[in-house]
Amino acid sequence: MADTPLPAGEYAIVEVLGHRTIIGRVEEVERFGAKLMSIQPLFNGELLAAVMIGGSSIYQFTPCTAEVAMKRQATDDWQLPTSIRATLPESALPAPEFNPAFLSDEEDDGDQYF
């Protein structure tokens, strides 16, 4: 995680319809003639690009301090909604872990993977 302080602004834990929770810096914006919430999700100490959410899609909005947001932020990519995870830069994704069991011949079912 980055040790740099978060920029000033309003932070919140936002629950959106579809069982998605997004934690980050929020502000109200107007786009396409409608009021939207712009939220910059926190991921591993960094603010990601803003995501726009319509007010009617917000299930729960919990304002919090930047410190609380930092403690509750997503630290693994699976904790982010799919639409946000799809836009992560490759450098933000974790490196694949080596699994020695994958190379084990103990349970050889005859299939060869190369």
What's the structural blueprint in terms of helices and strands?
Layout: E1 10-16, E2 20-31, E3 34-43, E4 46-47, E5 51-54, E6 58-64, H1 66-72, H2 82-85
Antiparallel strand pairs: 1-2, 1-6, 2-3, 3-4, 3-5
Structural class by SSE content: mainly beta
Strand element count? 6
Task: List SSEs in N-to-C order.
Answer: EEEEEEHH
Kindly report how far apart the N and C termini lie: 35 Å
Task: Give keywords.
mainly beta, elongated, 10% helix, 114 residues, 37% strand, six-stranded antiparallel β-sheet, SH3 type barrels
Description:
By secondary structure, the chain is mainly beta. It has a domain of about 80 residues: SH3 type barrels, CATH 2.30.30. About 10% of the residues lie in helices and about 35% in strands. About 20% of the residues are buried.
Short structural summary:
Residues 95-114 are annotated as: Disordered. With 114 residues, this protein is mostly beta strands.
